[in-house]
Specification:
Blueprint: E1 9-14, E2 23-27, E3 40-45, E4 48-58, E5 73-74, H1 83-95, H2 100-107, E6 117-122, H3 124-128, H4 136-148, E7 150-152, H5 153-160, H6 166-173, E8 177-182, E9 192-196, H7 202-208, H8 213-225, E10 229-230, H9 231-238, H10 242-250, E11 255-259, H11 280-295, E12 299-305, H12 311-324, E13 328-332, H13 340-350, E14 354-356, H14 363-374, E15 380-383, E16 395-400, H15 418-429, E17 432-437, H16 442-449, E18 454-458, E19 469-474, H17 492-503, E20 507-511, E21 520-523, E22 540-541, E23 548-549, E24 556-557, E25 571-574, H18 578-588, E26 594-597, H19 605-617, E27 622-625, E28 638-643, H20 657-669, E29 680-685, H21 691-697, H22 701-714, E30 722-730, H23 733-747, E31 755-767, E32 770-779, H24 782-793, E33 801-807
Parallel strand pairs: 12-17, 12-18, 13-15, 13-16, 14-15, 16-17, 19-29, 20-27, 20-28, 26-27, 28-29
Antiparallel strand pairs: 1-2, 1-4, 3-4, 3-5, 6-7, 6-8, 9-10, 9-11, 21-25, 22-23, 23-24, 30-32, 30-33, 31-32
């Protein structure tokens, strides 16, 4: 009787940073019962072994079976992700034009998809062998290994010019070399890395770091704490990398050791809802959402509430109802570091039942939080965009706090928008979703207008009191300040109200949308502006830390004594940033305590906490900052908000400029008068009649949104249409321009109501030495947009050109 014929099985495996499509591998017979979609697999990939996710299995192969390699190992007994996240991964890959492997890399903890580290070592027999007597390719590999002693496998093969690893495998089989594999895709270890200062005088350690300021910061921070600290904690607080700590250990500046991971603190619970009385409006909203939770099914809500109206308390009550029903919830916040109030409120209410996911976590910490969610140890996940990928199997409610915030749009692949994905997820799972904002996005408002979401409103502040009164100051009528090229930083009215506020012992917030001292360094002799050598932007003048800085690529250089163009010495810092505002305030009001809150001052996580903490206690009277001061903070002592210039974003060549300006002005105005004293707002502008400014003065969200929708319809901008930016980046402008023109030609005859703008240089034409040309594609629906993008992607970009497809971009810059 002949041998039983076995039908081969093939698996499609999505591998991060490899190929646009899933790759096909044969499945060894002994692994077939484990090969199901959603499990990880170890597979050979070119000269290395990689970890990917199986996304499909079949009994037939579209390519020559003789060329298909077998997968090496299956790593999981069951799928890692619940079915709704597998669906979401496929949606992201298709809609946002991202390889499926890269999508899984964004959804899973980094440890789970890391490739092996492989090191080739010379054996004693290999050290004595003569490479000349071996076949040429094996001899070349052995020669390189004899010279180095040991090398990473990929580096060794590249140096030897080997097209595959078979020469190395032959040396291993002959006993002339060995390969050691270090698995990097395992779960987090039971212990975590920690560091402490060595038993040496601190002065001696600091002297050795005289030319390494970051190392000095690490030493000073540890000395200030007076205790050992987790390596991840040091990296987060100081802003250094793990490599810095490893190098310091090697140089004897630190002692590294391992310890058990710390337990998450159990927060003292806030008063229960029996002690906190909801307003009638809040009760109505909680009842509406609660009914949708009980009923089941997809139910999108837009919760619009003025600043201070208690939106957070409303969704906390809704989460309580969801947990009582035995289900779980996800709360998205724009940026975990900038919205401590929102994430902290969830943790205080639900304690150890909450997992917090954010970028400051180490890989091991992220894995442990992810595993707690998957194992059912927690019931709520809170965090920025990626918290939507929490692996709950029984999700009952999604909350998107501050849904209008631009931080929900991912700027690197996969370029998804978390608010939109929350709606997609909720529809797929048939559960409610709440979009919360004091200034709803035009997209969210359009859902209500089209009958696709239920509009809920909170029109009164829970602590009583009215919205602050807003005064508009026309800067065209103000006398210029000395040395400010005709501009005014502090109008007469703002000076007057600042003085009165400080005299009463109250606090003020000043919004300035640019950081640094001044955005431009200009030569008064020839008009030359000092620009970044790598970007099409002016270098920003900074006094703290000194020098000129590029806020796009990080380039910095000292302030020149003479103009690089004409060698003149009349260099003038034009315009203003947060540093200059603070300097002028100190001149106007000596003795007033002030602080700056921007990305320069909060590079350390403790910088944000220390500044906000000091302001909350009243130790700081005036807080000066960028849009960070507008993000959800609650300071009852603030009775005055001043907007130094409302015009910073209005001139940008971006169709969302007016919306962003309106939202920022309205949000920052809402920081004032949240206590028992009335608030006032002063908005300074050169464009007092602009709708974004005018409606922000009246807190009129409804009318602004209606007018903005008219504008969007007139010019066929989202949400009336679907938009994609197709950008081509290259080191040579000619390459990016030619690739963009070729893509425009590839589109061919356009479907009806589809429009392509370009080819044209991007508004920021060069960033990080890459020239950028782009097309803007608008279409009436997803299907037609996808058709055009498919046509473009049939062409492979020329060598040296990077193509970026951004669907539903938050900005066209």
């Amino acid at each position: 009787m002949g041998a039983r014929y076995h039908e081969p099985m093939y698996a499609q495996v999505a591998i991060p940073r490899s190929a646009p499509e899933a790759l096909t591998y044969s499945v060894p017979e002994h692994l077939e019962r484990f090969a199901v979609p959603g499990v990880r697999a170890r597979v050979p990939l070119r000269k290395r072994t990689a970890t990917g996710v199986i996304v499909g299995v079949s009994d037939h192969c579209e390519i020559d079976p003789q060329t298909v390699r077998p997968l090496s190992e299956i790593l999981d007994p069951e799928p890692l992700l619940p079915p709704h996240l597998a669906f979401l991964a496929d949606f992201i890959a298709t809609y946002y034009r991202c390889p499926l492997g890269d999508t899984f890399a964004a959804m899973l903890p980094a440890k789970l998809l890391r490739a092996d580290g492989e090191t080739a070592r010379l054996t004693p027999a290999g050290a004595a062998a003569d490479p000349a007597i071996l076949p040429p390719r094996q001899g070349a590999v052995l020669s390189e290994l004899q010279e180095a002693g040991r090398l990473g496998v990929a580096t060794l093969l590249a140096r030897a010019g080997a097209a595959s690893r078979s020469p190395l495998d032959a040396l291993v089989a002959a006993g002339l070399a060995s390969v050691r594999r270090r698995r990097r895709d395992r779960a987090g270890e039971a212990e975590v890395a920690a560091v402490k200062l060595p038993a040496k005088p601190l002065e001696e350690l600091l002297e050795r770091c005289r030319r390494a300021p970051r190392r000095r910061e690490v030493l000073e921070w540890l000395a200030e704490q007076g205790r050992p600290a987790l390596a991840s904690e040091v990296c987060s607080e100081v802003g250094c990398s793990p490599a810095t700590l490893r190098a310091m250990e090697k140089d004897g500046l630190l002692v590294r050791f391992s310890q058990a991971p710390p337990r998450r603190p159990r927060w003292v619970l806030r008063p229960t809802h029996d002690e906190l009385q909801l307003t009638d409006e809040q009760q109505a909203v909680v009842a509406a959402v609660g009914e949708a939770v009980d009923r089941g099914g997809y139910a999108p809500f837009l919760l619009e509430g003025i600043t201070g109206s208690g939106k957070t308390e409303v969704y906390l009550r809704c989460l309580e109802a969801v947990l009582a029903s035995g289900r779980t919830g996800v709360v998205l916040v724009p940026e975990i570091g900038l919205t401590p109030a929102a994430s902290g409120a969830v943790e205080r209410r639900f304690g150890s039942r909450v997992a917090v996911l954010h970028s400051a976590l180490s890989d091991g910490e992220r894995w442990r939080e992810w595993r707690r969610i998957r194992d059912g140890e927690v019931r709520i996940a809170v965090g920025p965009r990626s918290a939507l990928f929490a692996p709950f199997s029984d999700l009952g409610l999604i909350v998107v706090d501050e849904e209008h915030d631009g931080a929900y749009k991912q700027q690197e692949a996969p370029r998804y928008h978390a608010r939109d994905l929350a709606l997609v997820t909720a529809r797929h799972l048939e559960v409610p979703v709440i979009l919360c904002s004091a200034t709803p996005s035009v997209e969210a408002s359009a859902l209500v207008e089209r009958g696709l979401a239920t509009h809920l409103r909170l029109s009164r502040r829970v602590a009583g009191g009215e919205l602050p009164s807003v005064e508009l100051v026309d800067l065209r009528a103000e006398p210029p300040e000395p040395g400010e090229q005709g501009r005014t930083l502090f109008s007469r009215r703002l000076r007057e109200l600042l003085g009165e506020t400080v005299d009463r012992g109250e606090q003020a917030i000043l919004l300035m949308q640019r950081r640094g001292w001044a955005p431009i360094l200009l030569c008064r002799d020839c008009g030359h502006r000092i620009q970044c050598p790598s970007c099409s932007v002016s270098l920003v003048v900074h006094r703290r830390g000194g020098g000129l800085h590029c806020h796009y690529c990080g380039h910095h250089e000292p302030v020149p004594q003479r103009c690089p163009g004409c060698r003149g010495d009349l260099l003038d810092a034009v315009g203003a940033g947060t540093e200059k505002v603070a300097h002028h305030l100190e001149s106007l009001m000596p003795g007033v305590t002030s602080a700056i809150l921007d990305r320069d001052t909060v590079r350390r996580r403790s910088g944000l906490q220390d500044t906000l903490g000091a302001f909350a206690t009243g130790a700081i009277q005036v807080l000066i900052g960028t849009q960070m001061v507008a993000k959800g903070h609650h300071f009852p002592g603030v009775t005055l908000t001043g907007v130094i210039s409302a015009d910073a974003m209005l001139g940008l060549p971006d169709f969302r400029a007016a919306e962003r300006t309106f939202q920022l002005l309205t949000q920052v105005a809402g920081r004032s008068g949240r206590g028992d004293r009335p608030g006032r707002v002063v908005i300074q502008t050169y464009y007092p009649d602009h709708p974004a400014v005018r409606f922000a003065c009246n807190h009129d969200v409804t009318t602004f949104t209606a007018e903005e929708l008219v504008f969007r319809r007139s010019f066929a901008y989202p949400p009336v249409t679907r938009l994609a930016v197709i950008r081509f980046e290259a080191a040579a402008e000619r390459l990016s321009r030619d690739a963009c023109e070729a893509a425009a030609n590839a589109v061919g005859p356009l479907p009806e109501r589809v429009r392509v703008r370009g080819p044209a240089p991007a508004p920021l034409e060069r960033i990080r030495n890459q020239w950028r040309w782009q097309l803007l594609v608008t279409a009436p629906n997803r299907e037609l947009l996808r058709e055009v993008l498919d046509r473009v992607e049939t062409q492979t970009p020329p060598k040296g050109v990077r193509r970026v497809v951004d669907v539903d971009p938050s900005s066209t810059l």
